[in-house]
Protein 1
Amino acid sequence: MSAAGLAVQVRGARKRFGEREVLSGLDLDIGATEFVVMLGKSGSGKSTLLRALCALEPLDAGEARVPPRRSVVFQEPRLVESLRVRDNLLLGLPRTRAQLAAAEAALDEVELGGRSDAWPGTLSGGEAQRVALARALLRHPQLLLLDEPFAALDALTRIRMHALVARLCERHRTAVLLVTHDVDEAILLADRAVVLKEGQLGASFDVSLPRPRARGVPGFAALRRSLLAELGVVEQVGGSA
Amino acid sequence: MSATQRAEVASAGSPQLRAAEPVPVTAADGLLSLSPGAAQRESALRELATRAITPLVLLAAWSVGSATGWISPQTLAAPRAVWQAFVQLLGSGVLWDNLSISLQRALLGLVLGASTGLVLGLVTGLSRTGDRLLDPTLQMLRTIPFLAVAPLLVLWFGIDEQQKLLMIALAAGFPFYLNTHGGVRSTDRKLLEAARVFGASRRETIAAIILPAALPQLLVGLRQSLGISLIALIVAEQTNSPRGIGFLMMSAQQFFQVEILLVCVALYGLWGLLADVLVRTLERVLMPWKRAAARGRA
């Protein structure tokens, strides 16, 4: 059952933690260069699915088919503090001359050129997360898994990171699964936004807004309302009228 | 709260200002100024001087007490006499003779104990089977105070060097084992996951992630081992030893040479101090990333 042009094919994925079933027969396809954003409330199982796709968490039942080259950016940068930035990038890779050059190029891509000798402890949160992104892209992944990679960043850094990730994913032409609970983030980045509800895939929204995207563009607000409604949230802040 | 009271609170902690001498506060708008004043910029020299007061007073009291006969020389020899004993022991070579053998025992014992502790800690920390095989037994054995087995060691190995080395090694080995085990075990699981995802081999994971992460704990182990090996050394040398600082103390005790006893006590103190300096230096040299992070963003 080889499906041409697919990077991920999940069928009937089940996972249970004690009494709670977080994935109950989930199906998901991701195209070879598709950017899919998965939304869900905390504890909805989105991280569990992502961890299953990078073989950190075995499924109880069902099947997940993934490409051999996968990379992850986690919510925290997960850099080794005792390794310089360059050596963090090269973790698990052969230290050939070509790889060293590729590491420098990857740092250039995330706008951290010349910082390869820095210790991770001297980086800001945004810089560290960019190193993590460079480490993921250096492996030329066929599937890039992003587990709420912007959640711990401040709002201004997050805006810059969105632009950077959108640009890099377009250039690398890789399949991406981004897991988040930020609806705006989903609309800014996704080709397709899906909502995870009660352990299964709920509604799926094709996001056909032209790139590059910004929050104010026509169609943004309507899509935002639909996604929030799907997540069971009605936005209404303050005011007495 | 009146303006005067407020001024007193604001100047608290400043040694230059007496409470009876209120500072004018521009509190017309009811706001208190928090800009750094001269009071907060206490000089380093002044701090050092303050720290030195207590030891200097104690030393002076000791000198005066000895000079006036308040303190009997059989109880506590005068500072001058202690210094003279030190110079004389040093000049005659007696001090170095005994100190060198003590140093040698302590270092050999420490190396023996610490390396055994290190290897066992790595085995139990890195391998689940190793942990099940060895850790429960070692945890049980560590509850036995090493002093309790001293008579047994004498019975088994006699009173020569072997017994002394084993005693020191035994004392130094357990803290090193416990800290190695703990340090290896407490590696951040999230980092190990990342290493797995990025295809790092077991060997690379151990060398690049686990061991460096365990290093601070290993140095804590070294600090404890150094401290306890000194205690083991003292005990080992005070029972049937023909040479060593402990021997020097035992013979000084027999001849009521209080000043020599005090020289030896001071030497042990100095030893502890040097051990501390050693560990601090190692911390700085072995973990450059900690210093870089502390200095802030480069």
Protein 2
Amino acid sequence: MDRIPILKMGEYLLVTVQVDMHDRLAMTLQEDLADRIVKVRARAVLIDISALEVVDSFIGRMLGSIAAIARVLDAETVVVGMRPAVAITLVELGLALPGVRTALNVEKGMEILRRSLETSRGNGAATEAVAQPTDADAQG
Amino acid sequence: MPRDDTLSLRSSEDIVLIRQAVRAAAVDLRLSLVDQTKIVTAASELARNTLEYGGGGTVRIQGLQDGGRRGLRLTFEDKGPGIPDIERALKDGYTTGNGLGLGLGGARRLSSEFAIESRPGEGTKVTIARWTS
């Protein structure tokens, strides 16, 4: 069966869309990604669409859904490599991909994800640090 | 001899074939990359509408020549239920299906020319054109 491969690298999942997706293939990718995020406990998803010559409202909506589903599953998504003509067309179509983080290329996308993971870990540590004195107060 | 092909539209795989055929025609006509992308995207939206709401149909792809201008005209036809309120259907965000409701309005914005005829119970015909700028 037709499927878009999902690569795992540490906490990251990497997807490179290299074919002109028909609607069902896009839906399958959405489901496969949700499964993989949970199965491998991924914290970040990078989707490279640099090979896509067209992003219509269906694919645009699918990218938005993937980002939203990933967020609910505690993972960040970045979409990278959108072609300039695709960006111009998408905005004129009326779809500015709200809620989808984008980056120019894979390298920049990875940087965003790395920083975002560090921040979320940093915040976690800060919350614990704040929680400790409260415990101490309670004990004292 | 300008291109004039008619393709049938029965499944979501056909949407991909139509995108490819429209792209090839736009490249032949030497439309700019942005113009190619716009008409291919508009074609994708309209093809999905024809399939989802019209129950399938046909797409005619015509190369146009008008003096020095070159263009591409696409005609989507179905024999589906038709659109009772076209003005409303053209509004962004209005949908009777499960899409985003950007199809018709978006396709109109992406085209140089846009026309729609629809008769309840008889079907819908949408014609768009994109000219070299």
